[in-house]
Amino acid sequence: MASAFAHALAAVAIGKTLPAKSTSAKFWILGALCTILPDADVLMFKLGIPYEHVLGHRGFSHSLVFALLLGVLVTAIFFRSIKLTSKQGLLLILFFSLCTASHILLDALTNGGLGVAVFAPFDNTRHFLPWRPIQVSPIGIGNFFSEWGWRVIKSEVVWVGLPSLVYILFISIFKLSKNRTTFIKH
């Protein structure tokens, strides 16, 4: 898995695509939590559920179905005043679903584990992308503060941090130029 830091950074990059008026502290916190929540499945180890089981690590909670369900659930619970089928409701569902789905992408880019059950519950086959440059993160906070954890951080700076920053910069410049064009026309 990629680390929680890399997953949360994905939420920031995705969220920067939306207009600033659409965002709030709650929006950012929930987006970051959606990127991290799929890894709560490590608790299944404690229940005796093996890694390769559909409910095991990188199973159903790492699927596109789960991403969509979580996007709907988060929007319905935390944005009750917004109708789910409205433009704003659908945008929030899309955002939270994309944040969750970004977890799938980042984990599929790591160099360890058994892969990701992208299409669960319909197909529990685990998948990786053909190119896997991200160093897999150790499970557990204590294990993260080690030489292995340092290798993960260096890998994520290159393969997640820099692309995210470039994307955020590109989006910011695009929004700024769009705002200037709109301002000049009026």
- Oligomeric assembly: single chain
Q: Which structural category fits the helices and strands?
A: mainly alpha
Overall body shape: globular
Q: What's the number of extended β-strand segments?
A: 0
What pattern of helices and strands is seen along the backbone? HHHHHHH
* Major sheet attributes: none
**Total helix count?**
7
Transmembrane segments: 60-79, 91-122, 157-176
Keywords: Hydrolase, Membrane, Transmembrane, Transmembrane helix
Protein name: Metal-dependent hydrolase
GO molecular function: hydrolase activity
List the helices and strands and how they pair.
Elements: H1 4-15, H2 25-36, H3 43-46, H4 64-78, H5 87-108, H6 141-144, H7 147-185
